[in-house]
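Inverse folding, one chain.
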């Protein structure tokens, strides 16, 4: 049994796209990948006894660490930054790869200002006295942010923090070097590249000061990544600063984590995603996945001046990684890049899925909804906290079978329309692609919210199969069909037809999801079927069934506009849901709910009692926690 722990990467917080490759033994293998707290010895023994491999990965091997607590990452826990009320945030900014910039005309010196956060009161910066005639001339002619009267310092905090107070003082040996006028600016993003730092919007100021220690309260407190200190010299005296401190307390309001792009040794069928952690009552913890067919989720673009066009940035016939892109293209001036910064990098929607909807944090151990079989996968975790309530994730586990049971598995159902509540006989067409060495399958699972009444017949390659069996699931939501034999390579491309009878009880229709599995390998991932053109004689390419009006009380249900794009631009930002309620003689319970394609409840829009009539409600594209859902 092979297992491996991926160790921490040193250096800067990585904004480049890193690929982590994993190796497993030859042949099909169920693997559990755990990010975060390692397995206990008992858990390792249990996995080994089941023939399941495992690999352990550190949180700190990450593509993005935004407002996360570095010390917690070191011990295997993912959680937002938290500081005690009396803890100086600036004192540790260098450990988080933040920096202190001292403006020197048009340049930023990032070495000189580090003495301000070294917690040594005897080191600091001093600005010498100015000759009175020069000072007062400047005061008359150049009383602005760019003259000799002003000094500017920028503190990149190395993450996003809640800031309540800023303190500063000169060295104890020279208390009269106190600052006379100070302005505080904040920015919601740091500046990790380049030598230019813009002026931040002013958030607070002290216009008259004659005390060595300055304390500026930020009212209200602000969440920021960078603090800018602008010092106004009101007299020609020598001034200095030895210590700069920032205090907040509590959790940072928002934090995010993106894993590396994990490259599996082959395409894989995704199984369950599970996690362990804590979420306080007023906080949110959201876990998402996305999967891809190549190692690069983003496309990088370049502006070609001669051709006056924008094309994919290629080198030697291949896409660049983020590191290569920044190294070669990041040096170009903005004039040589696309007009809008958001167009410099775009998502590769052709080879990568969108981020999934958030998995329900209270319900670990659910199926991964991102497409498979695929070779690349990535995980994202987002935290939304109050100052007192936060959350943490000890680990996230992914289960996969590498390679999958079969190379490709598509299906479609017929008919695709039925009447609500009427038993209907459906045919599920399944088309497998089986290569030599594939484990293949000898059983099929079909699931539907309304359940299956009976399985009536089975055909493989057009031949009726008599020796099959079936049984309903314990929850009554689906059925398992046992084939008379395991499909072989010679069955690749042969149509498997399952004829079954089921009820559709939803007016909006029903999705019949399906998976295949091998009864001889119960610990392997059940491989999910994807809709497509399995049978060229029918034109559905779907595994969902819609309904026609039967004796329903609901009529003319509709949603507009189409498309619905809740992105805040004021155009088609809300979906309008309308319906008519018929044939009721008294008020009846009515609810309007949004579900995702897996059947998971996203949000309840309305719940009440309605009389006969016409009704309309709106949905703004958010879930039950008022977070915008994925496309």
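Residues assigned per position:
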């Amino acid at each position: 049994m092979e297992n491996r722990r991926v160790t921490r990467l040193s250096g800067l917080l990585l904004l480049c796209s890193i690929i982590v490759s994993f190796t497993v033994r030859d042949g099909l293998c169920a693997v559990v990948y755990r990010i975060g707290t390692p397995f206990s010895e008992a858990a390792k023994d249990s996995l080994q006894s089941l023939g399941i491999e495992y690999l352990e990965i550190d949180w700190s091997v990450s593509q993005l660490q935004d407002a996360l607590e570095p010390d917690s990452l070191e011990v295997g826990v993912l959680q937002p930054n938290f500081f005690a009320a009396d803890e100086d945030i600036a004192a540790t900014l260098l450990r988080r790869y933040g920096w202190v910039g001292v403006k020197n005309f048009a340049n930023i010196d990032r070495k000189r200002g580090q003495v301000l956060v070294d917690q040594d009161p005897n080191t600091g910066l001093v600005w010498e006295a100015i000759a009175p005639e020069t000072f007062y001339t400047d005061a008359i002619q150049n009383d602005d942010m760019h003259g000799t009267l002003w000094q500017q310092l920028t503190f990149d905090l190395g993450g996003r923090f809640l800031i309540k107070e800023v303190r500063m003082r000169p060295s104890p040996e020279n208390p009269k070097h106190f600052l006379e006028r100070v302005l505080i600016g904040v920015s919601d993003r740091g500046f990790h590249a380049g030598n230019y730092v813009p002026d931040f919007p002013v958030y607070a100021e002290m216009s008259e000061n004659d005390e060595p220690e300055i304390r500026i309260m930020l009212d209200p407190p602000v969440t920021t990544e960078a603090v800018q200190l602008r010092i106004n010299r009101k007299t020609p005296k020598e001034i200095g600063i030895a210590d700069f401190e920032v205090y907040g307390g509590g959790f940072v309001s928002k934090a995010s984590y993106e894993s590396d792009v994990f490259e599996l040794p082959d395409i894989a069928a995704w199984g369950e995603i599970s996690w362990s952690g804590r979420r306080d009552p007023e906080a949110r913890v959201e876990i998402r996945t996305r999967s891809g067919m190549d190692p690069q989720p983003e496309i990088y673009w370049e502006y070609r001046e001669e051709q006056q066009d924008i094309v994919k940035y290629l080198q030697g016939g291949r896409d660049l990684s983020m590191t290569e892109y920044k190294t070669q293209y990041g040096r170009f001036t903005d004039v040589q890049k696309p007009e809008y910064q958001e167009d410099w990098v775009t998502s590769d929607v052709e080879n990568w899925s969108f981020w999934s909807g958030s998995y329900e944090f209270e319900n670990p151990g659910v199926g991964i909804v991102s497409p498979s079989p695929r070779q690349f996968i990535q995980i994202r975790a987002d935290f939304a906290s109050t100052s007192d309530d936060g959350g943490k994730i000890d680990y996230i586990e992914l289960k996969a079978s590498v390679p999958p049971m079969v190379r490709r598995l598509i299906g479609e159902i017929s008919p695709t329309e039925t009447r609500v509540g009427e038993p209907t006989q459906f045919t599920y067409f399944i088309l497998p692609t089986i290569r030599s060495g594939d484990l293949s399958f000898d059983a099929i699972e079909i699931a539907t919210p309304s359940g299956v009444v009976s399985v009536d017949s089975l055909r493989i390659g057009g031949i009726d199969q008599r020796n099959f069996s079936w049984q309903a699931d314990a929850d009554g939501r689906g059925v398992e069909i046992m084939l008379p034999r395991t499909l072989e390579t010679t069955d690749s491309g042969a149509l498997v037809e399952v004829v079954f009878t089921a009820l559709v009880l939803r007016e909006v229709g029903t999705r019949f999801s399906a998976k295949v599995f091998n009864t001889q390998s119960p610990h392997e991932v059940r491989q999910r079927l994807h809709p497509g053109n399995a049978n060229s004689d029918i034109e559905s390419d779907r595994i969902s069934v819609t309904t026609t009006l039967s004796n329903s009380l609901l009529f003319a249900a509709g949603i507009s506009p189409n498309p619905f794009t809740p992105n805040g631009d004021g155009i088609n930002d809300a979906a309008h849901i309308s319906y008519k309620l018929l044939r009721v003689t008294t008020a009846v319970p009515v609810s309007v709910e949004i579900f995702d394609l897996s059947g998971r409840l996203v949000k309840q829009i309305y719940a009440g009692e309605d009389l006969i009539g016409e009704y309309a409600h709106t949905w703004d594209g958010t879930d039950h926690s008022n977070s915008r859902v994925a496309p």
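The radius of gyration is 31 Å. The first strand starts at residue 5 and ends at 6.
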